Amino acid sequence: MAYILQVDFKMDGPFGDEMVEEFSDLAKSINEEEGFLWKVWTEDREAKEAGGIYLFESKESAQNYLTMHTERLKGFGIEPVNGKIFEVNKGLTQINNGPIK
């Protein structure tokens, strides 16, 4: 069963290409997290918000990542961190071309 982790938080930047430059190493490290499958990075420069939509193999791996990532962001002075975990409905997601196998 796959699980979506939705995370968002307030952030002053960087955004766009600057975010790519600043966070490439972080992005690469996320690939090594247990149970991680993929992430879509999200940003809203005007609202000064960022975050992501992640897919994990299990609810436990999504929760473990959320706990670790929340603490990491707090270490950067980013609070609060909003995180929600959802079970993926595979059948409907496949109808809408979602990247679920």
From TrEMBL:
Keywords: Monooxygenase, Oxidoreductase. One of its GO terms (molecular function) is monooxygenase activity. Pfam families: ydhR. Coiled coil: none annotated. PANTHER family: MONOOXYGENASE YDHR-RELATED, PTHR39169. This is Monooxygenase. It comes from the Bacteria. It comes from Halobacillus shinanisalinarum.
